[in-house]
């Protein structure tokens, strides 16, 4: 059993314990009150100087509340729960009263021990308790509470409470605002400031790398107006602004990176996020237009704006469409708000009646605008006339009336092309004129390329000089046509065209002879240089002369090449006129091939040898040189080394026709060359004339070198004279000093060049003579044609007299209205006959011929010119019967004279191709079919393009005409096919050609059937194209190898091949062509200041020494 404590002692300890509980709990409550109020006071104070962040306000609130929420329970646990027993109270007293506390602690512990414990004395325990009770009965333990600070916490709590109360009393708005911000830190409660400003954005987008301003405005309800405001971006310098009219203008430098802007204005603290961004730009700007109804547009064209201005058709309606670089918030045009959709701005349509300006401004969603509004100039323009250009395939102004002339038309218009075509008019009168549609356009087709054709016979135009120009129309009502530059065409009939071409051939031949004479001059100069000694030839000035000779040779070759091209063009034009027979044209084309060989190979070879001579080193010919022999010289050396032939070994020889006694053979030094033996095998015609004296035979030198080769050609009949007695055939050469063998490399090259040039001149002379003979036959044939044409005109006069003056037959002599035109026509024919007679007399003076002399005599005897003019006078006074019979008489007479001249017009030099090639007549037919088919394709394409602008009946008729033309071309091709079959073994030799021509005729049948439907579209053009390709193959066939070559041949010239030379003219002529680089040499002549010869000699010697020294090293 436990011992009870004295009452006084237990009461004293219980009172002390209660006192501790009250004091410590009071301390906790006061501390909690202090913490809570103090945290509020801190927020209030901080809000006066800064924008207290939410996290700090939350921290202060939690800290203040933690004193109450955590400190008070801790206080209760420590001072109440842990001090609930009396011994705990005794221990606390021991802190203030150590001895008394220990005594009381011992008494309390003894009292709690069980009675009867060993060694325990109850009397002593009781006595101790009484002694302790007596000791504490007068003690006051109220101040013995350990660490009592309830008074201090009371004062602290009262102080902060007083501060809070004062704030609430004096600045209630700020106090309540701070209380709200402190009590609810999670809410975005705007901080109360005494200096009130208008709201600032949290995110400020400014122009990139541009200075910007920020104006801070004081609110009307502000209680404080600070004198200045400060702002700073990042670590940049502080910007200060003075108050001006309730505004603080802040100017900031350019910014490139995102940063925070801190604003300090009185108790206002703001942080704004500054974000530099580029200004919004327009990535696209266009004008959508609604064009006037006359243009027949079904769409709304869009015109892109370039350079701040745009042209719009006057009378159209326009809408502006703009696209920005990012989404827009608004846009204005001339101050009026426009519809915005994302980044696109669209305005309503407005009519455009005059030039105007539009001011466009836009703003993106960040508030950025362009620096200045866009000023768009809208130019109201009128509908312009079409612009067109016309080009011809060739520049030939003289054309046949049956020839189809092609034009390439390129038309451009600002809005739409309605149609285009050709228009023609006569140069001599205003009656002959016409036009045609070449292609139809469309309302929205701004460019048009078309092929237009003109054919005088097809379009009903008589032979005359006409002007042709292209025209185009657009859709503007009442506008006149737009025209291209005019082309002048001289349309001739077949006869006049043949006369004109013959005249051109004559002029061309004169130009060719000038080239021949120039070559002769070069040859003479080369011989003079060769006559110099080796030492003189090595002089620098002579070497320069050789180089100049080489350049002049190249220049003459180039001139001859260009002349040859113009000759080919003339022959090609002649192939279109069937007045020219194929044999003459083949002969002319063959001569052109020979001339081309001279210009392209032989003249450059001579120039090459001369250049090697100019650059040759000094020394004997046997020594090595840096120069390389030319192909021609090497070929000559090879021909010199060929085996020598022997005559009289039974080899078959060509027919040799001679008139007169055999002449003694002229002896030559050396053996005959192979070329001379070939020459003996060529057919020849000679008229031999003997001499009263006998020529002494000269023994042949067996050791002499063979004579140089010469071209083996069949020439015109020649007259051979016997050599005079005691004189050899080459006695003139013996009078000259004996030519010494070359003593230097330069002399050797000069010798080779002279020899090759001599052969070149011989070939050139032969070609020139042959061309002269062909031209003579052509000129003679023109007289036949002219007389035939005059004869036909007389028959026309007789017919007109019979039909137009028949009603006045037998009446009195008086002028008849219908006969006046016939009389004028007859006088014109009289002048034509006079010109024929005059030309015939001039031609006879140049080339005497008995047929010409006979006809000239008959024309003079019959007074043809005077009598034909007299017929016109008789017709004018109504002597129609006499005039009719006279016209028929002169028609017969002129025709008879033409027949008599046929023999004089026969070409004795006209050649033909070999037996293994197609005859030129057939080749000419194939060429005509090819040319006509190509023109037909152009006409078909032209008609298809013009189809929308033509009536259905007109298109059908023209398509049927094209089908008829296709049948005509097929008939011509059939003629060539039949002619090949008529050739000896034609089916065997020309099987490929026959197969191709048969395929051509089959395709032409298909093409004609398509055109007859009518259909001028892609199927017809495809069939015509197939026929053209097949004809090109047929035209290139027959170029077989072998054959005897054409006459004149030999000499390895280009004319020696067995194919028809005509096959290389016209379309497809480049089938076997090869591209070669054309060297551009130095032109002849001298440029710059000419130095004295002694200066040149010294310079040449100086450089020669340098070269010799370099070579020795």
From TrEMBL:
Residues 545-564, 614-751, 1036-1094 are annotated as: Disordered. The chain crosses the membrane at residues 21-42, 54-74, 153-171. Keywords: Membrane, Transmembrane, Transmembrane helix. Residues 1039-1055 have a biased composition (Gly residues). Residues 614-623 have a biased composition (Polar residues). Residues 547-558, 624-637, 1056-1068 have a biased composition (Low complexity). Residues 671-691, 729-738 have a biased composition (Basic and acidic residues). This is DUF4175 family protein. The lineage of its organism: Bacteria, Pseudomonadati, Verrucomicrobiota, Verrucomicrobiia, Verrucomicrobiales.
């Amino acid at each position: 059993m436990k011992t009870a404590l004295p009452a006084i002692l237990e009461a004293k300890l219980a009172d002390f314990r209660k006192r501790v509980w009250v004091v410590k709990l009071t301390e906790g409550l006061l501390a909690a009150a202090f913490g809570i109020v103090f945290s509020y006071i801190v927020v209030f104070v901080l809000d006066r100087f800064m924008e207290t962040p939410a996290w700090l306000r939350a921290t202060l609130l939690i800290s203040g509340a933690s004193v109450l929420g955590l400190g008070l329970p801790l206080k209760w646990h420590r001072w109440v729960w842990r001090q609930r027993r009396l011994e705990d109270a005794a221990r606390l007293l021991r802190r203030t009263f150590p001895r008394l506390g220990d005594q009381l602690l011992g008494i309390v512990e003894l009292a709690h021990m069980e009675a009867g414990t060993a060694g325990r004395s109850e009397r002593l325990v009781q006595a101790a308790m009484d002694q302790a009770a007596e000791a504490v009965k007068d003690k006051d333990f109220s101040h013995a509470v350990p660490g009592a600070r309830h008074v201090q916490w009371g004062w602290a709590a009262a102080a902060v409470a007083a501060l809070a109360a004062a704030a609430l009393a004096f600045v209630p708005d700020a106090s309540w605002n701070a209380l709200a911000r402190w009590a609810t830190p999670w809410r975005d409660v705007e901080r109360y400031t005494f200096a009130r400003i208008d709201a600032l954005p949290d995110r400020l987008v400014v122009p990139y790398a541009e200075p910007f301003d920020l104006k801070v405005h004081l609110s009307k309800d502000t209680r404080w107006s600070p004198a200045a405001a400060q702002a700073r971006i990042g670590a940049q310098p502080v910007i200060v602004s003075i108050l001006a009219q309730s505004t603080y203008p802040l100017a900031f430098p350019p910014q490139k990176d995102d940063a925070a802007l801190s604003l300090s204005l009185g108790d206002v603290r703001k942080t704004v996020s500054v974000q530099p961004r580029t200004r919004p730009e327009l990535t696209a700007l266009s004008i959508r237009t609604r064009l006037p109804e006359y243009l027949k547009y079904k769409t709304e064209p869009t015109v892109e704006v370039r350079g701040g201005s745009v042209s719009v058709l006057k009378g159209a309606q326009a809408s502006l469409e703009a696209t920005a670089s990012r989404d827009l918030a608004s846009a204005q045009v001339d101050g009026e708000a426009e519809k915005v959709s994302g980044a696109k701005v669209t305005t309503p349509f407005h009519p455009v009646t005059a030039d105007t300006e539009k001011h466009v401004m836009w703003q993106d969603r960040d508030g950025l605008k362009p620096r200045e509004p866009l000023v768009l100039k809208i130019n109201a323009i009128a509908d312009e006339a079409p612009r067109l250009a016309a080009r011809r395939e060739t520049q030939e102004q003289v054309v046949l009336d049956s020839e189809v002339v092609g034009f390439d038309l390129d038309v451009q218009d600002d809005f739409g092309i309605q149609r285009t075509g050709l228009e023609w008019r006569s140069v001599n009168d205003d009656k002959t004129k016409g036009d045609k549609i070449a292609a139809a356009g469309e309302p929205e087709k701004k460019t048009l390329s078309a092929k237009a054709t003109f054919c005088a016979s097809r379009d009903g135009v008589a032979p005359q000089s006409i002007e042709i120009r292209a025209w185009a129309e657009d859709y503007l009502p009442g506008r006149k046509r737009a025209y291209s530059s005019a082309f002048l065409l001289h349309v001739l009939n077949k006869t006049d065209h043949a006369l004109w071409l013959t005249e051109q051939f004559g002029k061309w031949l004169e130009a060719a002879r000038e080239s021949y004479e120039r070559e002769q001059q070069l040859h003479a100069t080369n011989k003079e240089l060769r006559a110099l000694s080796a030492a003189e030839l090595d002089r620098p000035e002579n070497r320069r002369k050789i180089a100049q000779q080489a350049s002049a040779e190249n220049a003459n070759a180039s001139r001859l090449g260009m002349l040859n091209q113009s000759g080919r063009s003339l022959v090609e034009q002649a192939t279109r006129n069937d007045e020219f027979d194929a044999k003459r044209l083949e002969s002319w084309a063959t001569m052109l091939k020979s001339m081309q060989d001279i210009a392209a190979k032989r003249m450059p070879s001579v120039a090459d040898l001369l250049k090697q001579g100019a650059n040759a080193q000094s020394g004997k010919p046997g020594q090595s040189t840096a120069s390389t022999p030319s192909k021609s010289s090497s070929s000559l050396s090879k021909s010199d080394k060929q085996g020598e032939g022997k005559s009289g070994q039974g080899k078959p020889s060509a027919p040799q026709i001679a008139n007169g006694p055999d002449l003694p053979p002229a002896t030559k030094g050396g053996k005959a060359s192979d070329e001379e033996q070939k020459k003996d095998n060529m057919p020849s015609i000679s008229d031999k004339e003997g001499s009263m004296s006998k020529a002494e035979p000269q023994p042949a030198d067996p050791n002499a070198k063979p004579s140089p080769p010469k071209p083996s050609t069949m020439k015109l009949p020649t007259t051979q004279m016997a050599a005079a007695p005691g004189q050899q055939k080459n006695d003139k050469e013996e009078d000259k000093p004996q030519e010494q063998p070359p003593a230097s490399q330069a002399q050797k090259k000069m010798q080779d060049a002279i020899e090759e040039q001599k052969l070149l001149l011989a070939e050139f002379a032969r070609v020139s003579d042959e061309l002269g003979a062909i031209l003579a036959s052509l000129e003679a044939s023109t007289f036949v044609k002219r007389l035939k044409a005059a004869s036909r005109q007389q028959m026309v006069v007789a017919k007109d007299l019979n039909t137009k003056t028949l009603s006045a037959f037998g009446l009195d002599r008086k002028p008849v209205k219908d006969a006046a035109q016939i009389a004028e026509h007859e006088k014109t024919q009289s002048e034509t006959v006079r010109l024929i007679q005059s030309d015939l007399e001039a031609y006879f003076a140049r080339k005497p011929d008995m047929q010409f002399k006979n006809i000239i005599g008959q024309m003079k005897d019959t007074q043809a010119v005077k009598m034909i003019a007299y017929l016109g006078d008789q017709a004018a006074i109504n002597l129609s019967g006499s005039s009719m019979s006279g016209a028929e008489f002169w028609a017969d007479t002129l025709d008879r004279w033409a027949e008599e001249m046929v023999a004089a017009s026969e070409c004795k030099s006209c050649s033909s191709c070999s037996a293994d090639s197609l005859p030129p007549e057939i080749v000419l037919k194939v060429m005509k079919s090819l040319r006509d088919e190509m023109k037909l394709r152009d006409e078909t394409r032209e008609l298809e393009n013009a189809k929308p602008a033509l009536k259905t009946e007109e298109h059908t008729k023209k398509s049927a005409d094209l089908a008829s033309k296709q049948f005509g071309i097929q008939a011509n091709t059939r003629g060539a096919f039949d002619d090949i079959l008529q050739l000896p073994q034609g089916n065997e030799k020309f099987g490929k050609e026959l197969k191709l021509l048969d395929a051509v005729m089959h395709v032409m049948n298909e093409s004609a059937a398509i055109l007859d439907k009518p259909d001028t579209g892609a199927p017809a053009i495809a069939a015509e194209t197939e026929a053209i390709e097949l004809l090109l193959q047929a035209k290139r066939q027959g170029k077989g190898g072998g054959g005897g070559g054409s006459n004149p041949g030999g000499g390895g010239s280009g004319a020696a091949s067995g194919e028809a030379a005509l096959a290389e003219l016209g379309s497809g002529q480049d089938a076997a062509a090869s591209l070669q680089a054309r060297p551009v040499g130095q032109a002849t002549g001298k440029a710059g200041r000419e130095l004295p010869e002694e200066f040149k000699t010294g310079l040449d010697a100086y450089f020669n020494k340098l070269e010799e020294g370099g070579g020795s090293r």
